[in-house]
Amino acid sequence: MEIHPRLAERYGVKDGDALEVATRRGSLVLPAKVVTTIRPDTVFIPYHWPGKLAANQLTGRFLDPVSKIPEFKVSACRLKKVPLDQLPEELRELQRMAAQASSAQAHLPERVM
Predict the structure, then answer these.
(1) CA 61, CA 54: separation in Å to the nearest integer?
(2) Of 8, 75, 78, 97, which is the most buried if we count CB atoms within 10 A?
(3) pTM, whole model, 2 decimals?
(4) What is the pLDDT of residues 57-74, one digit of tens each?
């Protein structure tokens, strides 16, 4: 979950800390990624993750009255810093796989001819 440094400071959050983000529809626990590329009053969760990591489970299922496109991308939320061991097992597995892939890429030549 991307979070602006000002908002992260307000919650005592550092890069990599676990945050619970909750809405009226549900909650997720995700690692914080402190970035300056978003508004100070906003958090961003990629919405392409499946299952228990899906951000769409936190948002409303309202449709635009004209296009009928779902408005899955916006929702008010509450944040709470939680212990790292509360990160979902699915996320820990993805992090392990990403670290393994990154390590394997470090051994590849810079340029392939």
Answers:
(1) 14
(2) 8
(3) 0.74
(4) 888 778 888 988 877 677
Instruction: Tell me the CA distances in angstroms from 28 to 6, 37, 39, 80, 92, one per residue in order.
Output: 21, 22, 21, 11, 14
Query: How is domain 2-105 classified at the CATH fold level?
Result: Barwin-like endoglucanases (2.40.40)
Overall residue count recorded for the chain in this entry: 113
- The CA-based diameter of the chain, rounded to the nearest angstrom, is 53
Q: Locate 40 and state its tokens.
A: 């100070």
Tell me which residue of 45, 40, 41 sits closest to 30, measured CA to CA.
45
- In the prediction, which pLDDT does 34 show? 95
Q: Kindly list the domain boundaries of the chain, sorted by start residue.
A: 2-105
**C-alpha–C-alpha distance, residues 16 and 32, integer Å:** 5
Q: Where are the beta strands (DSSP E) in the chain?
A: 2-3, 18-23, 26-31, 33-34, 43-44, 78-82
- What CA–CA distance (Å, rounded) separates 74 from 7? 18
